[in-house]
Amino acid sequence: MSRGKPEPVEVIKERRDGALARLTDGIPYAAFLGIRFDRRGDELTAILPYGDHVLGNPMVPALHGGAIAAFMEVAAVVQLGWTQGWERMETGAEPFAGRLPKTIDFTIDYLRPGLPRDIYARARIARAGRRFASVHVECWQDNRDRPVAQAVGHFLMPDDIAG
Amino acid sequence: MTLTHDLQRITAFLTELPHARALSMRVESFGNASAALSMPYDTRFVGDPATGVIHGGAVSALMDTTCAGAVMAHPEHPLSTATIDLRIDYMRSATPGQRITARAECHHITRHVAFVRAVAYDADETRPVATATATFTVERAP
Questions:
Q1: Å from B57 to nearest chain A CA?
Q2: Distance CA A138, CA A28 (A)
Q3: Between B1, B51, B57, which is nearest A69 by CB?
Q4: Which end of chain B has less neighbouring CB within 10 Å, N or C?
Q5: Which candidate, A43, A46, A41, A44, places its Cα nearest to that of A73?
Q6: With an 8 Å Cβ cutoff, are A102 and B17 in contact?
Q7: Cβ atoms within 10 Å, residue A84
Q8: What sequence ranges are listed for the domain Thioesterase (chain B) (predicted)?
C-alpha cells in the first residue's frame, strides 16, 4: 500500500478514545469501582481513583484485597479486548462487536498493602491464541518499581473473535 | 489495630469493611475455622451487560473476605490476617438475579501462615460458580 496523506490527529484520537470508552463503558462493575483508562498510543494504564468504597480495614487504612483483585481483572480483560480489537478499529470497523473474554482463573500475589490513594495497573498479554489467552497484570501506587500486587489470569476468548 | 475474638465483633468487622459494605456482603455463618458470606445480585456488579452475569472481580472480593473470615474463625485465634496469595477458578457463570454465597475453610495453620480453600455458589448448590485457594498471614498475640 502506498503511503497516503497521514490521518489528522484529531480523527485518530476520536476513533481510538471513542473505541476505548465503548469498551470500558460496557463493563458496569468497572464503572461501579470508578476505573478509568489512560491511553498513550496503544498502551493502556488502568487507574482506580481512591474512594471509601475500595477501602478494606479503615483502621489501618488499606485498600481491600478484593477491590485490588477486581481492578486487576478489569485491566486484564480490557487489555485483551483492546488488543484484539485494535486492527479492526484501525480499519474503521466496529472493534468490539460481541462479548468480552471470560475469566477462567485469576491468581493474585499481594506484595504490599494498598495505601489509601489512587492505584494504577498495566496488563501484558503473554499469549493470546484463538481460544485461550494468558495475561500478566502489575499494579502500583507511588513507585512503579514497588508493585502493590501482581497477577496472572487465563481467559477464554469469545466465539466471535476465536471462531 | 486489635481484634478481640468475640464472634459478633469479628463478624461485624468483616461486613463493615467499606468495600464489603459497598458490595452489601452479609455473614451467613462463622466459627470453627470456617466462614460463609453472601452478596446480593446487583446490576452495578455486572461484568458483561450482554449476559447480565456478575463480574469475576466482585466474586473475588467476596472470596477474599470470606477466606479472611475463615482465618479469623480458626480456634488458634489470629489477631489479624492479610492475603498473601489468592487463586480463583471460575467454573461457570453465576445465574443473573441470584445471591452468591462463598464458604471458606482454613484447613491448615502454621505459626505465620494460614491455608484456606473456598467455594462459591448461587442458588444451585450442586454446581459451584467458583473455587478459591489462598494463603494468608497469621498475626499472633506477642
A1: 4
A2: 22
A3: B57
A4: C
A5: A46
A6: no
A7: 21
A8: 52-127
**What percent of chain B has pLDDT above 70?**
96
Domains contained in chain B, number = 1
Average pLDDT over residues B56-75: 96
Could you give the CA distance from residue A21 to residue A38 in angstroms, rounded to a whole number? 11
CB B137 within 8 A of CB B112: yes
**pLDDT of B2 higher than 60:** no
The CATH architecture to which A9-162 belongs is Roll (3.10)
Q: Which pLDDT value is given to residue B5? A: 55
- For A76-100, write each residue's pLDDT tens digit: 999 999 998 888 888 888 887 667 8
Kindly tell me the sign of the dihedral angle through the C-alpha atoms of B58, B60, B65, B69: positive
Domain, as residue range, for B112: 7-137
- Which of A13-17, A74-78, A103-107, A133-137 shows the lowest mean pLDDT across its residues? A13-17
In B, which residues are within 8 Å of A30 by CB distance?
Answer: 55
Q: Is residue B1 part of a domain?
A: no
Q: Give the ipTM of the model, two decimals please.
A: 0.92
The set of cell numbers assigned to A13 is: 484520537
**Distance in angstroms (rounded) separating the CA atoms of residues A106 and A119:** 19
